Amino acid sequence: MRELYKFCRAVVCLAFIIPTPFLLFSQRTLTAFPNTSIGTYISGFYVSLPASYGSTTKNYPLLIFLHGIGEIGNGSPAQLPAVLRNGTPMQINQQVNNHVDAHFPDPVVVHGNSYEFIVIAPQMNAWPPIVQEQQMVDDIMNYANSHYRVDASKISLTGLSMGGGIAIEYPGLAADPYGKKLASLLGVAIASFNENERSKQIAMAHLPVWLTANDGDTDPAGYATGYYNQLIALNADPAPELTILHEAGHGGWVDTYGAPTDGNGAHPGITNGEGLNVYQWMAQYKRVGNNVLVEGISIPLPVTWGPYSAQLNGTSVTVSWSTLQEENNRYFVVQRSGDGQSFIPLDTVAAVNGPHSYSYADKDPLAGSNYYRLLQVDLDGRTDYSGIMNVNVSGTARLSLKPNPSSGIVYLEMINAEQGRLEVGLTNTSGQLLRKWSFDKQATYWTQAIDPGQLSAGTYFITIKGARTKEVRSFVRTQK
């Protein structure tokens, strides 16, 4: 959904600044960078630095604000000020212009601790295709990290409508590397359909999420509620926050972030069940690898990962990993992929529940690239993933069966250039055809799960035939 905003009141933009910060009120700065590109989709942006930035050497939390479709522009001096119409940039603009009701907390005080955000608010020149949103956000992060003293463990991403959709789709593509770069995410009136796979990736990243929308804004309210329900069903830890505002029309950003008196009363910003406004809620989180900390207290996770690696040893690949601490851990599943996206399980390794080093030998790796990751499963069924490890192997078989022996589902993996129809047959040692399947192979890497059904324990053969392919592998069936 790429809806246009309806603006209910005129916006008075700050006089344009060519990159020289001006200092007013609290001495927080707001600097415009017109006609300055960050990657493909950013042609200009604003940066706001804390009042104390110039007098310290410490690193600061980073807040990235993504605007809506109504503020798209070419980054020129004439169009860049549109970014100041809503949300955080509007509040900071009003603050530096000495507006007493700006409602941007500076500093942000939460649980007795004080934080000041570096804020970057880019102007997008178009709505990026969904496959390029992650690169755009990464470009912004990389720019901020290379030009300012950013605390990389405290990066928060927020946006409204189009920007809110991009914000939630950024970690929704993959927990690692995207979700695990963020400490928190706030989405307002998000323009993003709630796909369950996105929620899965967000949950795997243990990313704190707060979504808001007007109940009269049908699609965004439904999307926000959909993501929330999916994350709850996935036992997301920490649990997501959802605020549905009793308002009509597309909006919610005034009530969410806060705004000064506009004739209808002041909007100080919403608070959650703990009484935290959105800035306090974002500021309290700190990312440490797979974990998220709140004021130095870990959100309980049973495993703290140590180093992990995958290395070629002769014709086998050894996957090694360690844990710095384990509690209530059930087991690990070693998974493999030929393309880094579709993974199949290789084996299950029981947990020791204490700092420990583990290893697993894959004796039948694929030809070419082998991607490995570890799925960790708690006693209560919650899960976490390691990062992805890559090993390149040459001279091995193009087809593998996992697990082998098997008492249930068998996964086929094959790498070759041929694409098209594949016929798969299951035979016994007498050559009798027991079952057959047909599949379409659409890429160099192909993986498929098959259920051999009820078979007696013993040895069987799986044959794969294509226009130029014929592979036969034996496997052993065991009783359940």
Task: List key phrases describing it.
15% helix, 480 residues, alpha+beta, nine-stranded mixed beta sheet, five-stranded antiparallel beta sheet
Mean pLDDT equals: 86
Main sheet makeup: 9 strands, mixed
Write down how many β-strands occur, each being a DSSP E stretch of 2 or more residues. Answer: 29
> Reading side by side through the largest sheet, how are the strands ordered?
1-2-3-7-4-8-9-10-11
* Beta-strand percent range: 35-45%
Entry summary:
With 480 residues, this protein is α+β, with helices and mostly antiparallel strands. The protein has helices at 87-96, 133-147, 162-173, 196-204, 218-233, 253-257, 278-283, and strands at residues 22-23, 29-33, 42-48, 60-66, 108-110, 113-115, 118-124, 150-160, 184-188, 209-216, 241-248, 285-288, 291-294, 297-298, 303-313, 316-326, 329-337, 344-350, 356-362, 368-378, 383-385, 389-393, 399-402, 410-415, 420-427, 433-441, 445-450, 458-465, 470-477. The chain contains 7 helices and 29 strands.
